[in-house]
From TrEMBL:
<dbReference type="InterPro" id="IPR024086">
    <property type="entry name" value="GlmM_arc-type"/>
</dbReference>
<dbReference type="InterPro" id="IPR005845">
    <property type="entry name" value="A-D-PHexomutase_a/b/a-II"/>
</dbReference>
<dbReference type="InterPro" id="IPR016066">
    <property type="entry name" value="A-D-PHexomutase_CS"/>
</dbReference>
<feature type="domain" description="Alpha-D-phosphohexomutase alpha/beta/alpha">
    <location>
        <begin position="8"/>
        <end position="141"/>
    </location>
</feature>
<dbReference type="Pfam" id="PF02879">
    <property type="entry name" value="PGM_PMM_II"/>
</dbReference>
<dbReference type="InterPro" id="IPR036900">
    <property type="entry name" value="A-D-PHexomutase_C_sf"/>
</dbReference>
<feature type="domain" description="Alpha-D-phosphohexomutase C-terminal">
    <location>
        <begin position="395"/>
        <end position="452"/>
    </location>
</feature>
<dbReference type="InterPro" id="IPR005841">
    <property type="entry name" value="Alpha-D-phosphohexomutase_SF"/>
</dbReference>
<keyword id="KW-0597">Phosphoprotein</keyword>
<dbReference type="InterPro" id="IPR050060">
    <property type="entry name" value="Phosphoglucosamine_mutase"/>
</dbReference>
<dbReference type="GO" id="GO:0008966">
    <property type="term" value="F:phosphoglucosamine mutase activity"/>
</dbReference>
<feature type="domain" description="Alpha-D-phosphohexomutase alpha/beta/alpha">
    <location>
        <begin position="270"/>
        <end position="374"/>
    </location>
</feature>
<feature type="domain" description="Alpha-D-phosphohexomutase alpha/beta/alpha">
    <location>
        <begin position="172"/>
        <end position="263"/>
    </location>
</feature>
<keyword id="KW-0460">Magnesium</keyword>
<dbReference type="Pfam" id="PF00408">
    <property type="entry name" value="PGM_PMM_IV"/>
</dbReference>
<dbReference type="InterPro" id="IPR005844">
    <property type="entry name" value="A-D-PHexomutase_a/b/a-I"/>
</dbReference>
<keyword id="KW-0413">Isomerase</keyword>
């Protein structure tokens, strides 16, 4: 059982002892720290916070604790109840709120939950702000409101509808073309809020919808991370029903995976590649993803005359580099689409609408679209080390060894070779080096990873 505190919020498993798990006491403590930070930063007004949750079983309990803690601090709350992460992000500036909290553990199993914290733009907090909140929580330096100054809760249950309408207003989303294409789409909503939002969006786009696990009970029918090994049923359903494609989201709807009409995975790395291909064709410009994302985005960006840049891993880092480079689209290779025309946050609803417009315009099958992109294959591994080893020293040795290659040390060590790359990142919570590789074939990516693991072990034996 675990409680993990980071600059982007806290996540942990439900039950157990305070400070070891995400218990009611921990939920109250961190909600109070966030509320105190907001009040410190907005001393002349009563702050408002938008709160929403995915459908996981513990969500309602954690939401009541969080909202009432904020009320106790004298903060007003806009309660979205069942929602999605991008919906809360959209709602914060629309409500002119000072912040937002999403109660979701993303792709983690049902025993997990988390508080994800937003600023007044509806974006994840900077590292500096997150560190300040952790310090407030550590000192428990809270000052609750008197009885006449308590906050108020306002319920607004229509924000998924509002979010969908904002997606439909985007100039690059063409609902008429999508409707004319007469698509049939199978949806796996993993029994969370994607089961509400995705079918609703598709129906507004004139799509025939086949629903699988779209009842938001929070009882996830399979591992909720949208990876191939967890998606056998939806892959089979697409083929059985003759659907044009399958759509899969994680519990809070910020990760998006597609399944081709033949029941094969489109590839989570290629969700962003395809959406970027469409956006760049209409609005040429720059793109950003993180250092562990596929080289395919760079290739597509350069094909359209733009510049690709890679950020440190983490949505807040991707967003900052997108702003710095005026990127027209960006995101993460795990199926996270960030389209700033609507907001700076990973948004599956935006991704679905852009992808379907692209398909409708090109009159292509999903499998044909996938074959049109350069093929890269990834291998993701880790090497466990003993706690006394200096991980930074090991990474420095690797950097020295490959000093003749193109190297980035923005986040760990990434080595770009002509036909493949390797990215090494240390864990902040355990003595582990994560090893990501990409090459033209799966066997080559695996071989590169094995070679790097051997080299790390050689260095370990020397230090």
């Amino acid at each position: 059982m675990t409680l993990i505190k980071s600059i982007s919020g806290i996540r942990g498993t439900i039950g157990g002892k305070p400070s070891d798990n995400l218990t009611p006491i921990d939920a109250v403590k961190f909600a109070a720290a966030y509320g105190t930070w907001l009040k410190n930063n907005h001393p002349s007004k009563t702050p408002t916070v938008v709160v929403g949750r995915d459908a996981r079983i513990s969500g309602e309990m954690i939401q009541q604790l969080v909202m009432n803690t904020l009320v106790g601090l004298g903060i007003n709350v806009v309660d979205l109840d069942l929602s999605t992460t991008p919906t809360v992000e959209v709602a914060v500036p629309m409500e002119k709120a000072e912040g937002g909290i999403i109660l979701t553990a993303s792709h983690n199993p049902k025993q997990w939950n988390a508080l994800k914290l937003l600023n007044e733009k509806g974006e994840f907090l900077s590292g500096e702000d997150g560190a300040e909140i952790l310090e407030i929580a550590e000192k428990s330096n809270f000052d609750f409101a008197d009885v006449d100054s308590l906050g108020k809760v306002t319920s607004k249950s229509d924000y998924i509808d509002i979010h969908i309408e904002e997606v439909l207003k985007l100039p690059l989303v063409d609902a008429e073309k999508i409707k004319a294409a007469n698509f049939t789409v199978a949806v796996d909503g993993v029994n969370s809020t994607g089961g509400i939002a995705v079918p609703q969006l598709l129906k507004k786009l004139g799509v025939n919808v086949i629903e699988l696990y779209c009842d938001p009970t929070g009882h996830f029918p399979h591992n909720p991370e949208p990876l191939k090994e967890h998606l056998t049923e939806i892959c089979n359903l697409v083929k059985e029903k003759g659907a044009d494609l399958g759509v899969v989201v994680d519990p809070d709807v910020d990760r998006l995976a597609f399944i081709s009409e033949d029941g094969e995975m489109f590839g989570e790395e290629y969700t962003l590649v395809a959406c970027a291909d469409y956006v760049l064709n209409k609005t040429p410009g720059n793109t950003v993803s993180n250092l562990s994302s596929s080289r395919a985005l760079r290739d597509i960006t350069q094909k359209h005359g733009g510049t690709y840049r890679a950020s440190a891993v983490g949505e807040v880092n991707v967003v900052q580099l997108m702003k710095d480079t005026n990127a027209v689209i960006g995101g993460e290779g795990n199926g996270g689409i960030i389209y700033p025309e609507l907001h700076y946050g990973r948004d599956s609803l935006v991704g679905i609408a852009l992808f379907l417009t692209f398909l409708a315009e090109n009159k292509m099958k999903v499998s044909e679209l996938r074959k049109s992109y350069p093929s890269y294959f990834m291998s993701k591994n880790k090497i466990e080390l003993t706690p006394e080893l200096d991980v930074d020293k090991i990474l420095e040795e690797i950097e020295k060894k490959y000093s003749g290659e193109e190297i980035s040390t923005v986040d760990g060590v990434k080595i770009d070779f002509e036909n493949h790359w390797v990215h090494l990142r240390k864990s902040n919570t355990e003595p582990i080096i994560r090893i990501y590789t990409e090459a033209g074939t799966q066997s080559e990516a695996d071989m590169v990873a094995e070679k790097m693991i051997s080299e790390i072990q050689e260095i370990v034996n020397l230090v």
